[in-house]
Every structure is written in structure tokens, then in C-alpha cells.
Amino acid sequence: MPLSLWLSLVAICAVGAMSPGPSLALVLRHTLGGGRLPGVVAALSHALGVGLYALLTVWGLGALIARQPLLFQFITWAGAAYLAWLGIKALRAGRTAAFEPNAVLTTGPQAAREGMLVALGNPKLILFFVALLSQFVSPEMSVAAKALIVLTAMIIDGGWYVIVAVALSHSRVLPWLQARAHWVNRITGVLLIAIALRVVVG
């Protein structure tokens, strides 16, 4: 893969990872609920989900999904339903999630499961890979070039959200966020439900 093309891929993946959405809300929620480790676990499992989508894209399944409107619609609506469910769960948490210092209200396995599911069920990611990442794949592309696309998407996504989890879990930042956790939950819940509604309406 030419360097200029790879740099374009890096830029697109970075913009996609850094844009606010359900993935950021997920890492924030697990960092607040359990500290640095669950936040990092959520970030890394999210990156695995991104890697799976990237792998399917280089295998040509992204283009196949794009040619199957009903399948594409089903995937996006299922993702929207999952995001809405997470949003409702965050809203219902209310003030009960105004955590005490060092309280552990989320676990590593829970963070890993939700990290993967949010990645796989995020309509924004589905659109990103079908519409954008598939443009970097050509039939004559080598296996090494395809592997580079998958690794680039995974490393950028995982690296960004690990940085977010580590920054949020800093000893000065985390207590401030935990004291306002009920507001974070409400904002997160509204954001997730709004994204789900936008997908359904749009």
C-alpha cells in the first residue's frame, strides 16, 4: 500500500475514532463505574469489534452488505435498538450511580462484552466501514495490505480509547467525574437514545 494512501486511511480512522458517540460514552461509563481497568478493557474489546468489521470489509463483505438493502437495514436497526437499550439503562441508573470512591460497579467481563457489542451494533461504524473503508480495498490487493488496513483500524481505535480511559481515570479527574456521575449517566443516556432515533428516522 502506498504511503500516501495509508496516511489517508490513518486520518479517516482517527477522525472516526475521535468523533463523539456511543463508543466514547461506553468507555466513560465503564471508567466511572470501575476505574481504569474496566475502561481500558472496554476500549480494547471495542477495538476488537472494529477489527472484525475491518476484516469483513477487506474480505469484501462490506460491499456485499451495501448491495443488500434489507440486510443492511436489519443490521443498522438492530444496532439502534441495542444503543437505545443502553441509553435507557443509563437513564434508569440515575443517582444510584453517584459512585463512592473506589466503588466497583462494573466488571472486566461486563466491560469486555459491552465494548464488543457497542462496536458491532454501532450504526456509525457500520456506515463507516461500508461507505469509507471499503474504498481502500481492491480485488488485486495483497494479503499484507489487507492485514495492514485491519491492524491500522484496530490500533487507532484501541489506542484512542485507552488514552481516554487513562485520562479519565487520573487521580484528579475521576473523583470529580464520580461526584457528577448522575449527570454523566443522564447525558450518556440521552445521547445514546438520540443516536438510535436518528438511525431509525434517517
From TrEMBL:
Keyword annotations: Cell membrane, Membrane, Transmembrane, Transmembrane helix
Localization, UniProt: Cell membrane
Cellular component annotations (GO), alphabetically ordered: plasma membrane
Recorded GO MF terms: amino acid transmembrane transporter activity
Presence of the UniProt keyword Cytoplasm in the record: no
Keyword Metal-binding included in the entry's annotation: no
Stretches that traverse the bilayer: 41-63, 70-88, 115-136, 148-171, 183-201
Bilayer topology: Multi-pass membrane protein
InterPro entries reported in the protein's UniProt record: LeuE-type (IPR001123)
Highest taxon of source: Bacteria
Protein name per Swiss-Prot or TrEMBL: Threonine/homoserine/homoserine lactone efflux protein
Organism: Franzmannia pantelleriensis
